[in-house]
Amino acid sequence: MSRNKNVLVTAPIIGAIVVIFALSMFLNRNAPEDEAFVGSDSLATEHIEENHSDYKPWFSPVFTPGSGEIESGLFALQAALGAGVFGFALGAMWQRRRSEREAIAPAGDVDAMAARAGEGDRT
Amino acid sequence: MHIAEGFLPPVQAACWAAVAAPFVVHGAVAVVREVREHPESRLLLGAAGAFTFVLSAIKLPSLTGSSSHPTGTGLGAVLFRPPVMAFLGTVVLLFQALLLAHGGITTLGANAFSMAIVGPWVGYGVWQLSRKMNVPFSVGIFFAMAIANLSTYCVTSVQLGIAFPDATGGVIGSVVKFLGVFAVTQIPLAIIEGLVGVLIFNVLRKVARPEGPVWEY
Question: What is the least distance, in Å, from the CA of B153 to any CA of chain A?
Fold first, then answer.
């Protein structure tokens, strides 16, 4: 029962995320190639450079990725590392939960379960 | 939110770093204590940190035609309380500043203040409010994460507004301009972050009980 209820909640949520995503892409489909979906971080930098042109950044990044592709690759690496750790943690927790549940009631051991159920009646 | 390297005047950058430092140190102590007292929560802690790691790496398109990062700090703040996120968030920011030329070392204090300190505290506050109002878990998580996200970018707008006051509008005018750049773009992203948070929270709730402080509520 709870599995069905879960799907009822999860599916619309995923649907909503997809809709927002698709809407963003659709509404801006006509944007010129190099201006499309520019990061808001760089928009801020541009805004500063345009309106406060006498300000010069006084420090530059320790390491700059060689090109846009490498930068994308490094971002993907960050996401992959995080996702890997996250997936591992999730899997380990799930397995731990399953082991705990099996320790309480080993699947299929009907005699043990019956014996335990009988123990409750003795008081 | 990442203010780019060198884009805060030295004195202000130092001030933000000084303000952020005690929170980050306290956060590091909190992480160590949490791991020592509840070793079984290490997995959940790792998951919370990794979640922030992933979300802050992804650039999502927004309705306004620009793109930005979600923050992912709300979840960790709800699960482990904000001090832990001060430390974990700063680690993420440091990684991005050193390897991705995103954010910066000089702006680490300011970025930590907005993303690792204010964001998580606001998210935690919203969560606590939702518990007191007895709102369903999912609704509480949604608003905690979305508002944590938005508050992070609001703080960034204030930081940049203070550093670059508008010629006509002064600090306030500049803050409003930066809010216009960030905040509107962030709204659909904050909604997505809230929705993703609900999904992850539901999964964690099934998988991670009974350990994890949030179940004590």
Answer: 11
For residue B198, the chain A residues in CB contact (below 8 A) are: 13
Q: Is residue A85 part of a domain?
A: yes
Task: Provide, as residue numbers in chain B, all residues whose Cβ is less than 8 Å from the Cβ of A48.
Answer: 7, 160, 164
Q: Does A89 reside within a domain?
A: yes
A20 assigned to some structural domain: no
Torsion of CA A10, A13, A15, A16, to 10 degrees: 180
Express each pLDDT in B82-132 by its tens digit: 999 999 999 999 988 888 888 889 999 999 999 999 999 999 999 999 999
When divided into structural domains, chain A yields a total of 1
Pairing of strands B66-68, A38-39: parallel
Can you give the pTM of this predicted structure? 0.83
Residue among B116, B199, B194, B7 nearest A41 (CA): B7
The C-alpha of B30 sits at a distance from chain A's nearest C-alpha, in angstroms, of 20
Residue A105 structural domain: 66-123
Residue A70 maps to a domain: yes
pLDDT in tens, A22-70: 888 888 777 776 666 777 777 888 888 888 877 788 888 878 877 888 8
Q: Given this structure, which CATH class describes domain B10-216?
A: mainly alpha
The torsion angles phi and psi of B107, rounded to 5 degrees, stand at -95, 10
Q: Tell me the chain A residues in contact with residue B7 when contact means C-beta distances shorter than 8 Å.
A: 45, 48, 57
The rounded distance, in Å, linking the Cα atoms of A78 and B100 is 9
* ipTM confidence score: 0.81
